[in-house]
Design a protein that fits this description.
The chain is of the alpha/beta class. The chain is 30% helix and 22% strand. Strand 8, helix 5 and strand 9 form a beta-alpha-beta unit. The radius of gyration is 24 Å and the shape is globular.
Length: 492
């Protein structure tokens, strides 16, 4: 199999989002002897940031840690809008020549490992009609963890009776005019927290209707500390210090919430009460039933969410929907919320691997039946790595830990003259199954029940990842033997 020519490559990355671009950079710089390509189903790079177009779309992590570690985020505000992030991704890919390796409108339908040939065969559909076969020694799956084509279904009584527009943020119609309209956003996650302040500039009223509340944290968009560091340090040093500061603050806050949940709840309650107008009480609207960081925190840059509540253009309603009528939503409490537009920000539908069918020597692989080795390799599947970031920190931190592990593994295989590597869970019978993403968010609970994700184990290299420092150490210097079997097979 010729490498890097026509349709044969050493490494094929699937997905040209944050994970794919980051992996490509690590491949270029740390395994320059290998050829690679990126197959992207869509017509543009960016993944999530190219898909979502709803008002106010922005990061829910700071860009100093969410951005690429090899190309610092230069702007001074840590939370960025979708357009800025898209430009940053495109500029990065162009600067390092990664864009020249991307093949757009290449949908991977199935991948099949051939042990006798020691390579993957990818069945690809190009431009929706042309069939194409691509060969790879290694696959890196960077498709994320949710369904791009179908949102999480939500049962809303009487929704069919509604006379206005019903919109899901995942498929936002660019011609939707909400000027002077009463908008109700059903949901309480990051999307709802983002959309409410962004839509109050045109809408008459924007109400976030939630069954249960989330924690909403005011995230300052500027810091005197960071400004001081930029003045006294060279730009490259300032970035590293600021990035480390944001990482440590996030790490310490997460662990504070984990080990001292009551103290964290009280501190968040105190801060939230300061931000709320007098007509919106903390309880029940901002009193979650779970402890801090059992679900992902919602960020309000410069407190824009609370500002929208204080100026009267934004509102919050909490309760169970009884029925949707022609132009209103009735709650079981008796409250009625008027609406001209309903936005169903009810979450993502988890789908691991982009719906790609997988086979190993003609046998189908059910990914949800498999354990995950060090958060990256799939049990019993050769030469296959999937990229999964963190849900309790910036996604890119986890993505880069996986990319570093990938290049080290590839270089190790080369030095040992090995052709394939397979994770083997020989101790599977004694392990307890654990979720690979350990948060209590509704969409992740549904994914766990429906078997939409591979699983973590209770010990050894099968434990779920959650700590960037530990994972990066493992990626660069950790054990590459326990749980792995290496093979040298001639395919001549």
């Amino acid at each position: 199999m010729a490498k890097g020519t026509g349709n044969a490559f050493d490494v094929v990355c699937i997905g040209a989002g944050i994970s794919g671009i980051n992996t490509a950079y690590r491949l270029q710089t740390q395994t320059p002897h290998l050829s690679y390509t990126i197959l992207e189903n869509r017509s543009a790079m960016g993944g999530t940031w190219d898909l979502f177009k709803y008002p106010g779309i922005r990061s829910d992590s700071d860009l100093y840690t969410f951005g690429f570690p090899f190309r610092p985020w230069q702007q001074q505000h840590p939370i960025a809008d979708g357009a800025s992030i898209m430009k940053y991704i495109n500029d990065t890919a162009e600067e390092f020549g990664i864009d020249k390796h991307i093949q757009y409108q290449h949908r991977v339908n199935s991948v099949s490992w051939k042990s006798d040939q020691q390579h993957w065969v990818l069945d690809v559909l190009v431009n929706g009609s042309e069939k194409k076969t691509i060969y790879a020694k290694f696959i890196v799956l960077g498709t994320g963890y949710y369904n791009y084509n179908e949102p999480l279904a939500a049962t809303i009584p009487g929704i069919e009776n509604f006379g206005g527009s019903i919109v899901h943020p995942q498929f936002w119609p660019q011609d939707l005019d909400y000027t002077g309209k009463k908008v109700v956003i059903i949901g309480s996650g990051a999307t709802a927290i983002t959309m409410l302040p962004a839509m109050t500039d045109k809408a008459e009223k924007v109400t976030m209707l939630q069954r249960s509340p989330s924690y909403v944290v005011n995230q300052p968009q500027s810091s005197p500390i960071d400004q001081f560091l930029r003045r006294i340090l060279p730009a490259a040093w300032a970035f590293k210090v600021i990035r480390m500061r944001f990482f440590l603050l996030g790490f310490l806050f997460f662990n504070f919430c984990h080990y001292f949940p009551n103290a964290a709840r009280n501190a968040l309650r105190k801060d939230t009460i300061k931000e709320l107008p007098k007509n919106i009480p903390h309880d029940p609207h901002f009193e979650p039933s779970y402890s801090p960081w059992q679900q992902r925190m919602c960020m309000a840059p410069s407190g824009d969410f609370y500002e929208a509540l204080r100026n009267g253009k934004g509102d919050v309603a909490t309760g169970v929907i009884k029925e949707v009528t022609d132009h209103a939503i009735s709650l079981e409490s008796g409250q009625v919320v008027d609406a001209d537009i309903i936005i169903t920000a009810t979450g993502l539908k988890v789908r691991f691997g982009g719906g790609i069918q997988m086979y190993v020597d003609e046998k189908p692989v059910n990914m949800s039946d498999k354990y995950v080795w060090k958060g990256a390799l799939l049990q019993d599947v050769p030469n296959f790595i999937f990229v999964m970031g963190y849900v309790n920190a910036s996604w890119t931190l986890g993505s880069d830990a996986t990319a570093q592990l990938t290049t080290r593994l590839l270089n190790t295989m080369r030095s040992r003259k090995m052709t394939s590597v397979v994770p083997r869970a020989t101790d599977a019978s004694s392990m307890e199954e654990r979720p690979s993403l350990n948060l209590s968010s509704t969409y992740l609970k549904i994914a766990l029940k429906t078997g939409a994700m591979p699983k973590a184990g209770s010990g050894g290299p099968w434990k779920a990842r959650s700590n960037y420092m530990v994972d990066m150490w493992n990626a660069k210097w950790g054990d590459l033997n326990t749980g792995l079997q290496f093979y040298r097979v001639s395919s001549d």
